Structure formats: C-alpha cells, structure tokens
C-alpha cells in the first residue's frame, strides 16, 4: 500500500516538474512573440518616418516652374481641321418630299410598313 502511495507521489512530482517546464516554455514563446511584434512595429514606424521625410524633402527640393501664359491668336482659329476619318453620314429615316402630294401618302404608308413595330402589347 505504501509503495503505491510513494509511486503516486513520485508521479505527481514528475507531472508537476513537467507542467512547470511546459509553462516556462509557453511563457517564453509568448515573450518571443511580443518581442517580434514590438520589433516589427518599430520597423514600420521608422519606415513611415523615412517615407514622410523623403516626401518632405522632394516637396522642398522641387521648384515650381512658372506657367507660360496662354494667349490665343487669330491664326489658332483659322487653321483647317483635319480629321482622321471622314465624318459619318447617316441617311434620313423619313424623307421630306413635300412637292408631290399624291405620292406622299404612298411613301408614308410604305415607310410605315417597313418601320419596326415598337408598340408593347400585353
């Protein structure tokens, strides 16, 4: 009986030692993660400072050139305009032939026959 109690105590002592080692390892991992996070934050802050300093330096070193005044001359408006392609000519969909009253009714009827029916029906 006593041997079993001693063995149980020895097992508990081993588990306690093992648990303590695990806890120490866990906390050391946490510390290393925090250190890595803090280092990365510092690096990013330094990069931001450097970039902002570079932008300030560029803004300070670049001088603004005075813009040339824009003045229009008569020749600007008299030159011919050359297009790349000829302008599109669309045929008139309904011809305006008012001189012939008799043929007018026939043409309108023909055009209506050829026209698309855009009425909506339910």
Briefly summarize what is shown.
The chain contains three helices and no strands. The protein has 122 residues and is mostly helical. The N and C termini lie far apart (98 Å).
Explain this structure.
Pfam families: NPR1_interact. InterPro entries: NPR1/NH1-interacting (IPR031425). Belongs to the NPR1-interactor family. It is a single chain. The chain is mainly alpha-helical. It has a domain at about 1-60. About 65% of the residues lie in helices and about 0% in strands. It has three helices and no strands. The protein has helices spanning about 1-60, 75-80, 100-115. The longest helix has about 60 residues, at about 1-60. The termini are far apart. The mean pLDDT is about 75.
Helix content: 55-70%
What's the rounded overall pLDDT mean?
76
The number of distinct β-strands equals 0
Largest sheet: none
Rg measurement, Å: 46 Å
Supply the number of helical segments.
3
Fraction of residues in β-strands: under 5%
Distance between the termini: 98 Å
- Spans of at least 5 consecutive residues whose pLDDT stays below 50 are none
Please tell me what the overall shape is.
elongated
Helix and strand element order: HHH
Kindly name the structural category. mainly alpha
